Amino acid sequence: MKVITIDDSSTMRRIIKNTLKRIGYGDEILEAENGKEALDILASNDVDLIITDWNMPVMDGLTFVKKIRSDHKYDDIPIIMVTTEAAKEDIITALKAGVNNYIVKPFTPQVLKEKIEAVLGLKD
Predict the structure, then answer these.
(1) pLDDT(43) > 60
(2) Suppose 35 and one of 59, 103, 106, 121 were both cysteines; which one would form an S-S bond, judging by CB atoms 3.0 to 4.6 Å apart?
(3) How far apart are CA 21 and CA 34, in angstroms?
């Protein structure tokens, strides 16, 4: 499975990468520092899952999600937003933009695993 993790924090990308490997989803992990960089990577790679932060410079996660959801060739790729934005309104905004699931930082490996399984349809 090919996953792209998008976060302006290299530490957070490393945490997500290591967690994905530990929970069995670390076959191939691509990284981007912001939404614009992620768009460039998506243009030349087929990915199975997108894990994105919300707050990033250049292009934030919400703008990124809206942009790829408007391009219907990416409709089948599940998106999980991992962010510090915990307000109910923020979660609703992200879901309306096209995010499939939402994780509030900090999170445990078990939470990430459960959210991935949910968006991939591996869990009831």
Answers:
(1) yes
(2) 59
(3) 22
Q: Which domain holds residue 102?
A: 2-119
CA atoms within 13 A on the CB side of 25: 25
Domain membership of residue 11 (yes or no) is yes
Query: Is 124 within the bounds of a domain?
Result: no
Alpha carbons 51 and 4: distance in angstroms, whole number? 6
| Amino acid found at 99 | V
Q: Please tell me the total count of domains within the chain.
A: 1
CA dist., res. 31 & res. 15, Å (int): 12
C-alpha–C-alpha distance, residues 14 and 65, integer Å: 21
Work out the widest C-alpha separation in the chain, in whole angstroms. Answer: 37
For residues 27-37, give the mean pLDDT.
Answer: 96
In a domain, 44, yes or no: yes
Determine the average pLDDT of the residues in 68-86: 89
Average pLDDT score over the chain = 92
Indicate the DSSP class of residue 10. H
